[in-house]
Amino acid sequence: MEITAGTPVLVYDGDCAFCTSSLRTAERVLGTDGWASIPFQFADLDALGKFTAGAVTPERVEREIVWITPSGKAYGGAAAAARLLLRTQRLPWNVLGAVALLPGVRVAMAALYRLVAVNRHRLPGGTPACALPR
Q: Where would you tag: which of 40, 85, 86, 97 has the fewest CB atoms within 10 A of its CB?
């Protein structure tokens, strides 16, 4: 997968059933035109760390999804999800992505993302393997 070829990449936890099923739902609903995904377990994290000037670390990708742009900018958590929605360029998803990035909404979305992430092992499809590291 060549990020610099113009395709943003979403890095996620492939060991987490909740994360994987959420991603598969997003792929089905949003389509995959113009973006790619890879579990962090199969990503070259050293190369991604260098490409993103240290913004992608093993600790970060264990705790949140990370959206990496072709220019090397990395967005995590709720901001990554918003960037994915914006990338679809289809209503209503792109509008939801834009709204999620508004200043007041962004803070609320980040809090909601953290709440879901911390409890992902308790959510439908979640397993003990989904629990975040302490």
A: 86
Query: HEC string of the chain?
Result: CCHHHCCCEEEECCCCHHHHHHHHHHHHHHCCCCCEEEEHHHCCHHHHHHHCCCCCCHHHHHHCCEEECCCCCEEECHHHHHHHHHHCCCCCHHHHHHHHCCHHHHHHHHHHHHHHHHCHHHCCCCCHHHCCCC
pLDDT tens digits along 63-74? 999 999 999 999
pTM of the model: 0.92
Q: Are 49 and 74 in contact (CB under 8 A)?
A: no
Structure tokens at 131: 């629990």
Query: Distance (Å, rounded) from C-alpha 83 to C-alpha 100?
Result: 9
